[in-house]
Design a protein that fits this description.
There is one protein chain. The chain is about 45% helix and about 20% strand. The chain has one domain. The two termini are about 25 Å apart. With about 150 residues, the protein is α+β, with helices and mostly antiparallel strands. The relative contact order is 0.27.
Amino acid sequence: MHLTRPADALAAMRSLVRPGGQVVCEEMDLGVWLCDPPAEAMTRFFALNTALGERRGENFSLGASLHQLFRAAGFARPEVGANFALAVRGEEKRLLGMTFAEFAPELVSEGLATQEEADRVTADLLRLADDETTLFGFPLVAQVWATR
């Protein structure tokens, strides 16, 4: 998701693997997540994160289509798996707010958000993380592997 040409990277990986060897990749998809009850801060978190990736030529929704890249790279029969972590309490729920706080300066410098909005979203995400009545579904993590 952080590569501007992920198909080229996967083709290079395939070329380095001997026949019978495997290539295994795992990638997030920020387009697949959950917040129950719905919260504007979560919607904004993922929208801003995705917009920043798009601005930089990166695809933050790559996970769900990773299997297609494997086929395009010459793997005939890729296998797939996934992880979709859920949490109602615990430190892991704070990860999204802390992550947003880390990349918020980039959003402001790129003109995608104001400092005021970034501060508000950060505070709202951390508040939601402390609310045990709110379920977080972290972004989908897709796993794809195939044999050369």
